[in-house]
Amino acid sequence: MSVQHTAAAHIHRDDVASRMGMWLFLFTELLLFGGMFILYSVYRFTHPEDFHLAAKELNTVIGTFNTAILLTSSLTMALSIAAIQRKQKTLSIIFQLLTIVLALGFMVNKYFEWGAKFHHGIYPGSETLLSKPSGEILFFGLYYVMTGLHGLHVIIGVVIIAFMTVFTMRDVITHDNYVKLESAGLYWHLVDIIWIFLFPLFYLIT
Amino acid sequence: MSNENILSNNGNDVSYLEYKGKHTGILGWLLSTDHKRIGLLYLISLSIFLIVGVTFGFLMRLELLTPGRTIMDPQTYNSIFTLHGVIMIFLFVVPGLPAVFGNFFLPILIGARDVAFPRLNLLSWYLYVVGGLLAILSILLPGGPADTGWTFYIPYSVRTNTNVIPALFAAFILGFSSILTGVNFVTTVHRLRAPGMDWFKMPLSVWSLYATAWVQILATPIIGITLLLVAIERVFGVGLFDPALGGDPVLYQHLFWIYSHPAVYIMILPAMGVVSEIIPVFAHRTIFGYKFIAMSSIAIALFGSLVWAHHMFTAGMSDTGQLIFSLLTMIVAIPSAIKVFNWVATLYKGSIDLQPPMLYVLAFIFQFSIGGLTGIMQGVLSVDIQVHDTSFIVAHFHYVMFGGTGFGFFAALHYWFPKMFGKMYNVKLAKRVFWAMFVGFNTLYFPMFIMGWLGMPRRYYDYLPEYQIYHVISTIGSWILVSALFLMFGNFIYALFKGAKVTEKNVWGGETLEWQIATPPIHENFIDIPVVTESPYQYKDNELVLQTQEAK
Ligand code: HEM
Ligand SMILES: [Cu+2]
């Protein structure tokens, strides 16, 4: 079952290995967020009342809308891979660009959502926030950090997918060599899944 | 195929040290994706950081020579033990063996031409260097070096005005580097083993590197996020751990140790692998209990992830929690003991050849046993209340990390040096240096057990006069140890330039794959990928000799 090497090992290609590496990396990303989910659970357990009150201040409409956007973007990402497998290069590029547009839309919404909170004086270190009970301070602290880090992952995802688009245009990614695109897709689904957990924890459970 | 042309032009059989690829000169090293060259890059950078770390340790010992101020003020002392800890942990022992010898030998030991992701491998090294430079930068920036201890405990780490942020980011980036190495090694072991090398034909150091790589993958992200959160808390004043904002500092400690306890297994497992590799060669015997040693690596990795709170017995925890963590701590000692017994059983009736690598390995077994057994003592609740935060702890972890991993690292260096460079160091000098190292080490750290037991606190710059005798002995030990380190490095550096040339493939009579290839190895290790038909460490010829001797 060993891999056949050509004389130059650096040129050798092993898609199974690439996929395996990517999955391992995604594990580490999950654990990274896992640390914050632990914090959330513990503080929710110790300050149930405050978390209840604070969660009411989040805008469920924007949250739901953003969830829909991200889910759709995961779909377009998957479609772009399906397209390249069927040798439909242009279609694949279109789906990748759509994914990027949706991701940017998500970030714009986030911008307005955070902006509104800032406007009401709720931001780390603000007087309004510091005058609230400690559970609410923790809730908003976690809210900013977790959605912020998630947002950072969205931006990284956009950059990665943009690279993939260029690769597809230049035929680096082709119908028989698309493991890069697949890995980018896996990463994007991870970003999506993390949001699927963030959304109920911050917006829905009050 | 066109590559064949390129290759034959390069000469397929050129040593990796002379190989000329796309880049030449210094770039041929800095941009090389050859796992052997990356291993050497790590070796050089790691040695530099080790020297810096040792210097700080040496200065601390000098300060402790007399009570009160000797050479520095308390604040400097706080910074120095922080930097010493950060450098030794994150830049020396954690990356140490996997990054240097894992990189260099893991592919060779499994019969591969490189790791699974050579470019990612190079990226890991760059991250390592950036992290290291950031740690050094935190010393030089205005504000003064961090003074929190390498543990960055909350709330002090969000309150102090020193350069905690660069130190935190340094640790974060180094964690990333470690994760990528782990991902690379796990994939390499799964995908690139030579034909015929099934799991139970892998050399034992591969098993231990494999177990280590899993711990790197599974534990490191937790410390990454935890340190990042502390940085965010400091910069933006977000309420996360700081009790003034409602946070829970004990929660920080949990998250910190969920990584940092498994991290001690990242440190020790690869060294155990090296020991398992060296003992059969110099005892001329097939390793005893191969499967037990292999599986105990995995067991250590598993159980080691469940004992973190034994660092927090005094920090506030329920009685049930204390009991469970105490019990689990005892259990983790079992697989380590299995290894020690198997090593000793391998030595039994062997014809032992006391070459430098073997001397370091024997010292490893001795010192690691002391470190491990005192670890069990600390796992006992009542004892831990007494010794927590005393120099007993400092002695314990130096016995494990320096007496264990550090000596394991030196053993590996003496063992593989001729293979890596095609040069031999002065063996006679190396043996003498070993004894100085051994004596220096034990003189330095053993007194810390005693004074810690009597109540000398850890991380204190001052002490009561009755402890002075122990401090004086310990500081003298540090002089012996540091001189030995100098001589050891000197011996290696001299050998690089003036040492006797080695072209023999198998200088020590090892039975693993690295001893079947050219010295120093050629660019892609193997001209033809070997087919593995036998288990490692089959010292058959030798057994025959022994049998005939017994028959007589
Ligand atoms: C010549 C070599 C060394 C000397 C003289 C030395 C000395 C010391 C001393 C005196 C302390 C106690 C600090 C205190 O409690 O005030 C200390 C702490 C420490 N050392 Fe070493 N050490 C050496 C090598 C090492 C090595 C090789 C490692 C790692 C493998 C290491 C890791 C640590 C760590 C993690 C601490 C704890 C720092 C803290 O409390 O935050 N040291 N060392
Ligand atoms: Cu521990």
List the helices and strands and how they pair.
The complex is a heterodimer of chains A (206) and B (552).
Chain A: H1 15-46, H2 48-55, H3 60-85, H4 89-119, H5 127-130, H6 134-169, H7 179-204
Chain B: H1 2-10, H2 27-30, H3 35-63, H4 74-93, H5 96-109, H6 118-140, H7 156-159, H8 164-191, H9 204-236, H10 249-283, H11 290-303, H12 319-347, H13 356-379, H14 381-387, H15 391-421, E1 423-424, H16 427-454, H17 468-498, E2 500-501, H18 540-551
Antiparallel strand pairs in B: 1-2
Helix pairs in contact in B: 3-4, 3-5, 3-6, 3-17, 4-6, 5-8, 5-9, 5-15, 6-8, 8-9, 9-10, 9-11, 10-11, 10-12, 10-13, 10-15, 11-12, 12-13, 13-15, 13-16, 15-16, 16-17
Bound molecules: protoporphyrin IX containing FE (HEM) and copper (II) ion.
- Terminal Cα separation of chain B, in Å? 60 Å
Pattern of helices and strands of chain A? HHHHHHH
**What does the radius of gyration of chain B come to?**
24 Å
Strand order of the largest sheet of chain B: 1-2
**Main pleated sheet of chain B:** 2 strands, antiparallel
The total strand number of chain B stands at: 2
What is the fold named in CATH at topology level of chain B? Answer: Cytochrome C Oxidase, Chain A
Please tally the β strands of chain A and state the result.
Answer: 0
Hetero groups: protoporphyrin IX containing FE, copper (II) ion
For the CA atoms, what is the radius of gyration of chain A? 20 Å
Q: Averaged pLDDT of chain A, please?
A: 91
Number of domains of chain A: 1
Name the helicity range of chain A.
Answer: over 70%
Shape of chain B: globular
Note the quaternary state here: heterodimer
Question: How many separate domains make up the residues of chain B?
Answer: 1
Class computed from helices, strands and strand pairing of chain B: mainly alpha
Query: How would you describe the shape of chain A?
Result: elongated
